[in-house]
Amino acid sequence: MTNHNLYAALRGGFPADLDCTAIECADTEGAAGVALHYTWRDLDRGSAMIANLFASLDLPVGARVLVHTDKSVEALMLYLAVLRAGLVYVPLNNAYQASELSYFIANAEPALVVCASRDFGWLSKIAFRAGTAHVYTLDDDRRGSLLQRAAHHPDAQTPALRAADDVASIIYTSGTTGRSKGAMLSHGNLLSNAQVLKTLWGWRSEAEGGDVLIHALPLFHVHGLFVASHGALLNGSKMLWFAKFDARAVTARLPDATVFMGVPTLYVRLLAEPTFDARACRNMRLFISGSAPLLADTFRQFSERSGHTILERYGMSETVMLTSNPYAPVSGRLAGTVGFALPGVGLRVNTAHGEPIGDVEVRGPSVFQGYWRMPEKTAEEFTSDGWFKTGDVGQLDAQGRLTLIGRSKDLIISGGYNVYPAEVEGYLNELPGVEESAVIGVPHADFGEAVIALLVPRAGATVDATACIAALKQRIAGFKVPKQAIVVDQLPRNAMGKVQKALLREQYRALFSH
User: Fold this and answer.
1) Res 343: pLDDT
2) So what's the pLDDT on residue 176?
3) Helices (H) then strands (E): counts for the chain
4) Which of 104, 200, 496, 506 is the most exposed place for a label (fewest CB within 10 A)?
5) Are 224 and 213 in contact (CB under 8 A)?
6) How far is CA 302 from the centre of its chain?
7) Is pLDDT above 50 for 344?
8) What is the distance in angstroms between the CA of the first residue and the CA of the last residue of the chain?
9) For residue range 205-254, what is the model confidence (pLDDT) as tens digits?
10) In 3D, which of 312, 293, 311, 317 has the Cα closest to residue 366?
11) Please, are residues 505 and 440 in contact by the beta-carbon 8 Å criterion?
């Protein structure tokens, strides 16, 4: 039987010289005052020792390993070790607090939990009460009981035998609306996506000069854990590792790199950094953005400042990556679009009444196995002919390029008319002085829902909300124009930069109740 364990495939991408640098910690110094370096052999040996520790615990088949740690290379080794051991990796945002962890632990029922030492006291109590047998610590300074215990185990290990459809990871959805659901991704889901992106995004082999990835994303999310890490590992490419994003520090290392992946917020911060310019980007090959919508203005400004055109792509926890703007030609990368379906991905927009806008539905090898212990919810999210309902609303052009209009849950029905927030936001963001906007629907006695807009001014600018509404009345249908616009300092976002519209709807739900 062929072993479809994802680690075996990633390990196959390591370079022949295992003693060359795999990861350089760009913002962490070692004892000698120089940046910490990890070789490919270090990754292989370290993950083997942790995997052997897990094997010694005699954990049940399919056991979940829940991880709530800071970003570190050892945390990446832990992920690789879970794959090697044939267990199921469950990463969580390290900002989550006790009440949130109680839900995740009760839902996932992990056999083993790894957390930062500072959280051990309260988190271990939650875990042990829920029946978790083992709780280890792992800190970002290479300390913790996990590494202490693993140090006593052999540094060689054969990856556990796994089928392509065996679950490798459970990724909890970001939870911007309602309780988070655990999306089960298999070894085959993750590998197929990594292999497609390796080809599509032109990852360069060592013989072609090699790529160097700046890794400045968290490890608890699909973007940083799967898209970025898998890309570098599968290609045998060095990573410049940042535990936290710092625009000046990242800019200083751009000349040593060729690939950067970020969420839109990181691109905005780069543009605010005075040292960021075309010279800093002179050796860069590719900038990729995802996880939240990239403003067209950010897209244009970045091109002007850097000489590079950002490649925007689209994916989600349940599917990994689905679409991408083209790697070549660069002229095919258009602001406001997320490109074409990846090879092997089926993409359709389910429209009604002949309208061009509709629900985005997909199928393909990276689409998840279902929601953890939620068979009814899983069934609801698939059409009768097997397509996954992404929950996004979009439009396909004649060439098959997808433009996302918003989330179906964000759709506003005002006076019987459908209003897509992203469309209205696009017009608002073009108005003088407006940095960004969020359009939501709130209860209204006459209209059912009323459209309102939250406006964030540019630095140093003043925004006249009344004038903004007047300007919109000249550009879009009256039913789409916000009944009220409110100027705010900032918009609430989750860890990946997505605006949390559920919080805004709750905050302003009583606006028209008087």
Assistant:
1) 98
2) 42
3) 16, 24
4) 506
5) no
6) 21
7) yes
8) 68
9) 887 889 999 999 999 999 999 999 999 999 999 999 999 999 999 999 99
10) 317
11) yes
What is the spatial distance between Cα 230 and Cα 189, in angstroms, rounded to a whole number? 12
pLDDT tens-digit map of 409-422: 888 888 777 788 88
In this prediction, residue 353 carries a pLDDT of 59
pLDDT at 78: 98
Torsion of Cα atoms, 13 then 289 then 80 then 343, to 10°: -50
Q: How many CA atoms lie within 13 A of 288 on its CB side?
A: 33
Q: What angle do CA 374, 376, 378 make, to 5 degrees?
A: 70
Residue 357 has pLDDT above 50, yes or no: yes
Ordered alpha helix ranges (H), 158-283: 187-200, 222, 229-235, 247-253, 264-271
Report the amino acid identity of residue 77: M
The whole-number pLDDT of residue 30 equals: 61
Token digits for 298? Answer: 């950010």
Predicted confidence (pLDDT) at residue 383 exceeds the cutoff of 60: yes
The model's pLDDT over 54-66, given as tens digits with 9 standing for 90+, comes to: 999 999 999 999 9
Q: What CA–CA distance (Å, rounded) separates 196 from 198?
A: 5
pTM of the model: 0.87
Strands (E), 244-367: 259-262, 286-289, 311-316, 320-324, 340-341, 346-351, 358-363
The torsion region of residue 433 among left (phi > 0), alpha (psi -120 to 50) and beta comes to left
pLDDT tens by residue, 125-160: 999 999 999 999 999 999 999 999 999 999 999 999
Task: Give 69-90 pLDDT, tens digit per residue.
Answer: 999 999 999 999 999 999 999 9
Tokens of 324: 């991408």
Mean residue pLDDT of the chain comes to 93
Look at residues 168, 294, 266 and name the one whose alpha carbon lies nearest to residue 222: 168
**Closest C-alpha among 292, 162, 160 to residue 221:** 292
Cis, bond preceding 329 (omega within 30 deg of 0): yes
Identify residue 421 by its one-letter amino acid code: P
3-state helix, strand, coil in the chain (%, to 5): 30, 25, 40
Interior angle at CA 226, CA 221 and CA 230, nearest 5: 150
User: Phi and psi at residue 21, in whole multiples of 5°?
Assistant: -70, 125
Dist. CA 196–CA 341, nearest whole Å: 11
Q: Where are the beta strands (DSSP E) in 310-432?
A: 311-316, 320-324, 340-341, 346-351, 358-363, 388-396, 402-407, 412-414, 417-419
Both structure tokens of 48: 């083997």
Amino acid found at 392: D
Q: What's the pLDDT score for residue 31?
A: 58
In angstroms, rounded to a whole number, what is the distance separating the alpha carbons of residues 4 and 385?
Answer: 28
